[in-house]
Structure formats: structure tokens, C-alpha cells
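As a warm-up, study this chain.
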Amino acid sequence: MRKMAGLAVMIGAALAAGCNSNNDSNTPEPSAKNVIFFLGDGMGLNTLTASRIYGVGEEGSLTIDTLPETAFIKTFSHDAQVTDSAPSMAAYMTGVKSNNGVISMDSDATQESDCSQSGGKAVTTLLELAKADGRGTGVVTTTRVTHATPAATYAHICNRDLEADIAVQMVPGGSGYNTALKEGLDVGLGGGSSLFLP
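Now compare it with the structure written out below.
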């Protein structure tokens, strides 16, 4: 729970930094040197409440409670009121709503066991935009790097369960590699090593 609260604090701090409403035109706007996007998968009010009670008690405050800016985000996929991790993270990374089970593709893509049976097109992710701008990129996760949430940063596929096909999109020079990643991710930390072995 404390790790989730810590992630929430970091997300909130990043959002608050981006929401600076200083209207003094004589003050130069600071530019971000680095961007780190933290996501507590499945984190919501219930998780924060449980973290608060566990960490500081019902009357206490987590660091996230003291941030100057906070926000709520509506999470729904293109085809369902309740989203799953694939279109949820893809929406953060691409700005495009997709269908449940689909990773970083437009709303014409449907979840199929054979992607040749699915329509749709890949949509550009923030990580791909960063690579195009010559920036260093990476994915760090406590799950498999081919899991839907981290995969939505670098992969495009019609079915979140096709993790071997997701893995090849991350391997430079391999068949199926996502060439928008240029020379590849600079950092990739997480589980799922068996998916990268022959």
C-alpha cells in the first residue's frame, strides 16, 4: 500500500508541475528536462483511502493529499464503461480511446486471437514521439514488460494476451520490431524474460 501511495504522490507531483498557473508574463516558463510517467494500475479512491488508513490513519494525510493540484480522470474504453489496462494505458500514451483488450491502436481494432481478423491502425505513443525527438526512453514495471500496461507505451497489437508478439515489438532488429522505437528502448526493466527467449 505504501508503494501505491508513493506512486500516487509522484503522479500528482508531475501533474501539479504541469498545471502551474503563473500568469506573470515576465517570468520565463520552465521547461521539463525529463518526464517520468508513473501509473498505479487500478489505483483509485478506494486504494488511496486504504493507503491513508494503513499509513497515517483516517484523520491523517498522505503526501498526495497535500499537493496543490489534484484531478480525477474518467477511465472508460471505446467499447465499454469499465476499461481494462490495455485501452486505459493506451489512452494515456496516445490520446486515443480504443477497445478493451487492444493495445495502442485506434477504435476500429477489435480484440481477436488472430490480429489478421482485426481492423484498425496503430496510433503513435508518447514514447515513440520521445524517440523521434532523440530522447532517451524506457519502461520500468513490477509486472512483465509485455503486460498490457507497460506494453501500451511501445507496442501496437489487437490482443493484450499475445505477449510473445508484444515481446518481438521490443527487440531491435527482430521480425516484428516496432521501428518507431528507432534503435530501441534505453531501459527495459521488469519480468517476463521467458517471452524473449527462443
